[in-house]
Predict the 3D structure of the following.
Amino acid sequence: MTETRSAQPRHPFVEMTITRLLVMVREPEMIFWVFVFPLLMALALGIAFRTPSETQVAVAVEPGAGATELADTLAAHESIEIIPVDPGGTETALRDGLAHLVVVPGDPPRYRFDPIRSESRLARQTVDDLLQRAAGRKDVWTGRDETVTATGSRYIDWLIPGLLGMNIMGTGMWGVGFTLVLQRTRKMLKRLIATPMRRYQYLAALVAARLVLLGLEVAALVGFARLMFGVPIEGSLVTLGTVSLLGAMTFSGIGLLTASRAQTIEGISGIMNVVMAPMWICSGIFFAASNFPDPLQPFIQALPLTALVDALRSVMLDGNGLLATGPELLILAAWCAASFFLALRLFKWR
Amino acid sequence: MRPEQPTTAPAEPALSCTGIVKRYGDVLAVDGLDLEVRCGECFGLLGPNGAGKTTTIEILEGLLAPDAGRVRVLGCAWGEQDDALRARLGIHLQESQLDEKLTVIETLRLFRSFYPRGRSVDAVLELLELDGKRRSWVGKLSGGQRQRLAVGCALVGDPELLFLDEPTTGLDPQARRQLWAVLQSYRAAGGTVLLTTHYMDEAHVLCDRIAIVDYGKLVSEGSPDELILSIGAPHIVEVAFAGGAESQSADLQERLAALPDVDTVRAGESSGAWTVTAAALHRTLPALARAAAEMGTEIETLATRTATLEDVFVALTGHRLRDD
């Protein structure tokens, strides 16, 4: 019987790791959130924030006397795109971001824009230059441009390590924390401790299953970003793997901690969102953490996701090794040790 | 320290507890219970829902600490060498839900890996009659198959003592009989069983001895036959007289009680109906017919049956075992 061999149990740690992985992989929703969702996110943001080609400045001209001439003057330059608007439609075009700037013809012309938007300030500068030159201003000299369009400095290059960090956080928290609470509500934890199973092996297997998944999810996202957008990996893969591993361990520990007492699915979902939401916003996934005021910076820099994302960027974009990412790795290690230490003390098997 | 040999001497019971108490807030779930399960027997805790059966069995399983009392399982106390002790026990919990996305064989192999010694997974599959389902996901099994698998997970370690908490609750009659067959083959190999149930027929079929519990207290204890004999009479006569409520109840009860070999008389569920326990039907029934004739009333319905544990429970506690 060939079946008989498959019936031979392996070491309990191996059996538990395999069964945890099987349960995760057989859950279609899990596959979507861990593997598909980050790719979709990278794709959508990569397309939305692709490096602009010729058209840089979208301008709407307020209809009225002299509007046509003014539009023609501007349209002659390839860096300007004229947005056609109906009379009275300029406000809407500006609000919706279709136009960065509204020019009202006159002598001198007036510029209408929102100074908070950097692209609007740029548009004002560009249009003003062009119009002044058209009106006869002579430039004293023209500086020579040395444009840097190398990969590694685009938004998508900066974004991918952020998405990777976010994914490592999510999978660790849900994969460990949510699974544990689910098993607790189904009275499976109680069932397991009724056997001679070693409790630490169960928790270790849960983390191990999560780490096996980590390899796949990092490879999927980084590979996709490379193929699709040519996102570089300046540092070594070993360093990237080590940083990801420490991040995954840390968030497994935090997942374990959040699940140590929670008795219901609703409870753990709430706690997880409270723990993760500040990091989604503050840790620099989508925009730099330095946008937040200085007094908040010590707290933001101490968040584990900030440390993880900074370390990932340092490795992927700057090609740094482990030594250069030392401070971030120390912060992660501290979170990792503290959360496991606390979780194992607080954990309830029933 | 591998428990190759049972360390229990034949004289020592497989399990014993004295004076166990468990309190949840104001509710006394277990109120000073003493039990003893002998090696090789099947012992049943029989009682209605909420009688404290699950709390009791979880205390005995070492999953719950009692507020007071002493528990010894296979010659050991909980808290000494729990892992070694657990390797000799099989425990089935009432509410545990196995992972639905694991197959039958994956589930059994997982549980088997926890035990230092035990049965082969194939042997357990055969015993459970789940061989044809070995590659099916747990979520695709019927209720009876799932319950057999849950019991199978308690059997993979080839336990000396098997705990089962309400193993057949919610199953249809055929599924219950299949599970009973699994237990009987485990018993035939010399295993000891402690089970809780609120099914009197299950207790009667499976158990050598039964403890009837109600409100966390022991009401009575003995073999099913001893318990039935203990209420004085093994036969139940259900009789209803024509005319119903018009009959003189007190007078009628007195006359029924005075019939030969009658033990107890209780008013039945409908008016004019009576439940009589009797030791010897061949003397009681003719006398009953004569008494009816003398009183000038007619017997409308008459049925006799052998007393069950349900009757024992009603006789001892004054209320019914099942609330449905």
